Amino acid sequence: MSEVLVVIDHAEGEVKKPTYELLTIARRLGEPAAVFFGSPEQGDAVAEKVKKYGAAKVYVVDDAQIKGYLVAPKAEALQQLAEKTGPAAILLPSTFENKEVAGRLAIKLGSGLITDAVDVQEGGVTTQSVFAGNYTVQAKVTTGTPIITVKPNSAAPEEADGAGAVESFAATISDVAKTAQVVATQPRQSTGRPELTEAAIVVSGGRGTGGDFAPVEGFADSLGAAVGASRAAVDSGWMPHAFQVGQTGKTVSPQLYVANGISGAIQHRAGMQTSKTIVAVNKDPEAPIFELVDFGVVGDLHTVLPAATEKVKERKG
Amino acid sequence: MNIVVCVKYVPDATADRRFEDDFTVDRVGVDGLLSELDEYAVEQALQFREKREGEEITVTALTVGPEKAVDAVRKALQMGADSGVHVVDDAIAGSDYLGTSLVLAKAVEKIKADTGADLVVCGMASTDAAGSVVPAMLAERLGMPQVTLASVVESQGDQVRIKRDNEGSTEVIGATLPIVLSVTDQSGEARYPSFKGIMAAKKKPLETWSLTDLGLDADQVGLSVAYTQVEDTTARPPRTAGEIVTDEDGSGAGALVDFLASKKFI
Ligand SMILES: Cc1cc2nc3c(=O)[nH]c(=O)nc-3n(C[C@H](O)[C@H](O)[C@H](O)COP(=O)(O)OP(=O)(O)OC[C@H]3O[C@@H](n4cnc5c(N)ncnc54)[C@H](O)[C@@H]3O)c2cc1C
Ligand SMILES: Cc1cc2nc3c(=O)[nH]c(=O)nc-3n(C[C@H](O)[C@H](O)[C@H](O)COP(=O)(O)OP(=O)(O)OC[C@H]3O[C@@H](n4cnc5c(N)ncnc54)[C@H](O)[C@@H]3O)c2cc1C
To answer: Record's InterPro entries (chain B) (predicted)?
Structure first.
């Protein structure tokens, strides 16, 4: 069976959930071989984790030569790895950075690229959700090695035994790939809440919060949810941009999305319309967000959310 | 110095966007416009020029698209770009990322040969396909540094620095011109065309190029040679109308929590 390269999503060796989703999907296409860009010291620990989801091999690519430059070196390393291993497909978690890596890799390998897949079936047919979630598209790569970036929450991770054989891969990075330098990096502080794009539940606030996110955060915490925001809330300086949901922020596809004081503009919908269940609290019964919801409350979020938070806590005991 | 700003003509997001029978986007039947996110690219190109008083800097707006796509270039000229290039050829229709980035790269190379291309500015994504990949692919094809997804752009001499929000961090990226830059909607509000700008735009040079002008063959781009193939498109079934309750004396919170519990979220 041919290998399917799966690029591991991690922060300093902490493997993130989309990696396990991708390994699960990769098994439909061939034998998963995980690719770890990071410090070689962390390779064994990472391999222990990914082999539980079926990774037969783990290619460890020392990122000492790679992490100081934007995107281009990773694409070169993956090209060299693909040329060596001849994979059946290459899967990457769909982040902005990985999409750019995938784009450059597609040119280098002369291969087709599909971005933001929400499903990949046996045979490589992908599903994309497009036009703010109003259409789904079935597509396939027809030339070269299929390169597919896959969104978080596209599959439920399923465990499977893999050998997890660690193999270090030495990539040669050219000088042209080192022309956009990472001058400084500031890791974002953890909020202690689930990661926005990976969370099962997202509770968001908009302009209707009036700048007071406490009711939104309180309700989110009672449900163990991530917190999101509309662009209006971000532009007002109430929440950092990393929390923005929508066309120019994060796309989320949780089991439950709760929009509070958000009108439901098309650009906001683009980032949340594929959520399984949608709930809104808005004081305007005419707000367009109500067209999307499974359940809606017409009311003031400043009274509804604190009361609901208390009730959730009571139920949870 | 010449700056090339890449602007895409897209179907209006607030209109009823749809696909043709061959699964390509209906770019003719639906009203189109300059992709809103590319206005930020035009703005940054113009600011780059304005901040460098005394330097000879021109801005060329470039689009690849059908007949009507010239409107995207016109809008950029109205905002203040100096000249425009519209690459149009029936053979380009249905191009995927590889095809589109190839045509754009060839066009940039031709502009470079004519007037220079010291800075190529793109938007962060188109508002129709929203791939966010073309700028990186342009950098790959042109062999220029990729400096993408900038929320803040600063430059001094031939040095450019940007702020880039990544998944788990904020980065500062630095590079030396010429570069491919893409900018986000955080980079600064785009200006509206002034009346003077609209009048002046009518006299600005606007060229139309075909594939032949770029030294490309019809069999190198377009739907028939795409590296990817769309097999089907489906309109999402309309959402079944949800239950909507009005909060009265605190009833809303109870109803909300009952709903969440019924769906096993609690
Ligand atoms: C190029 C471009 C990209 C964009 N990208 C994004 C994006 O990524 N994400 C995004 O979100 N937007 C984006 N936008 C902006 C988008 O068009 C909207 O302006 C934005 O989503 C509005 O945010 P909002 O719903 O919070 O505010 P508003 O539209 O002002 O809505 C506020 C809502 O709160 C309700 N409300 C007020 N007070 C209360 C209260 N006390 N209790 C309950 N409800 C209350 C009101 O009834 C109203 O419905 C983009 C726009 C453009 C042009
Ligand atoms: C819904 C949908 C899904 C698609 N999915 C895929 C896919 O998975 N794989 C694939 O290969 N193709 C795909 N395509 C085709 C692809 O979108 C086109 O090739 C498109 O022209 C370029 O991609 P983009 O619009 O996503 O550009 P982006 O990468 O989002 O564009 C970023 C920037 O590049 C510049 N730019 C992009 N296109 C042009 C242009 N024509 N003229 C001038 N400047 C431009 C602009 O500055 C823009 O802001 C898809 C198309 C649609 C409509």
So the answer is: ETF_a/b_N (IPR014730), ETF_b (IPR012255), ETF_beta_N (IPR033948), Rossmann-like_a/b/a_fold (IPR014729)
